[in-house]
Amino acid sequence: MFIHDTLLHRLKRGCETMTYPKGPVPALPDRHGGALRFDASRCASGCMACLPVCPTEALIRPNGAPAAMDLGRCIFCGDCVQACPEKAITQTNDHRLAARTREDLVLGDNGRDQVRLATALDDTLRKLFGRSLKLRQVSAGGCNACEADTNVLGTIGWDLGRFGIQFVASPRHADGLLITGPVSENMELALRKTYDALPEPKIVIAVGACAIAGGPFINHAEHRQGAANVVSVDLFIPGCPPHPLTILDGLLRLLGRLDQAATNR
User: Fold this and answer.
1) Which burial class, exposed, middle or buried, applies to 83 when counting CB atoms under 10 A from its CB (0-12, 13-18, 19+)?
2) Mind listing the pLDDT tens digit for each residue in 77-127?
3) Beta strand ranges found along 170-216 (DSSP E)
4) Quick one: which of 38, 179, 255, 263 could link to 69 by a disulfide (CB 3.0–4.6 Å)?
5) Distance, CA of 156 to CA of 147 (rounded, Å)
6) Do the Cβ atoms of 136 and 178 come closer than 8 Å?
């Protein structure tokens, strides 16, 4: 009787997995704010109002040079948006943030006001990983926020497995690493050993401000200022933590699984 009721209940509920990316893009919560846009041309000469409020030194203006914003360091607290008198920093409510290089996350001093979004792997790697990607997740000293949002992707609403992407228990069964946390001193050796255990070819994804640049712990002596200082990274997904939609977008972008409309939106 119990099994019958359970099956009946499931039939009544129907499919609850979102249709994205073929369907509408889920809305980000109002408090999220999404990606930041930084228009350095609007910065007043010599203005430094935003610099003191940034807890992670994501905003810099060295020796009077043009201001720059590093979204790899940014924890998206929004304090700089409020502090800027020229409204040069704005929230876009755009979930797309993933980039292939650290330089692509730096805005302002290169004339770019938004992130240069990630391109897909080359043809050879897409043939290998495009339809089946197994990842070993390594929490290298994280606070569990990025890990929690990564775990959300495995729930019924997101169903990461429908894209052929799965998390596995052993690096020897994996195609790549998904790293969270700033890589604390005590986790560096474990990360290196996990990376070395991956079969070639392999990819590495850094998720969150900590894994990219140290996050709130930036410049602390007991961590490695992000994963790229320990292993080679192929995809950077900013946030503190990144929204599950931001993580999913980055993974699909890397695998070339987003259609042209979604890529150019």
Assistant:
1) middle
2) 999 999 999 899 999 999 999 999 999 999 986 678 999 999 999 999 999
3) 176-180, 203-207
4) 38
5) 17
6) yes
Cα(141)–Cα(104) distance, integer angstroms:
25
Q: Which two tokens stand for residue 93?
A: 């409510």
CA–CA gap between residue 11 and residue 13 (Å, rounded): 5
Pull the structure tokens for residue 213. 């640049």
Domain ranges of the chain: 123-264
Is CATH 3.40.50.12280 what the domain over 123-264 is classified as, yes or no?
yes
Measured in degrees and rounded to the nearest 5, phi and psi for residue 140 equal -95, 60
Neighbouring residues of 15: CB distance < 8 A, sequence distance ≥ 6: none
Contact 258, 245 (CB under 8 A): no
The answer to whether the beta carbons of residues 97 and 237 sit under 8 Å apart is yes
DSSP, collapsed to helix, strand or coil, labels residue 65 as coil
CA distance 21 to 252: 9
Tokens read off for 138: 């390594």
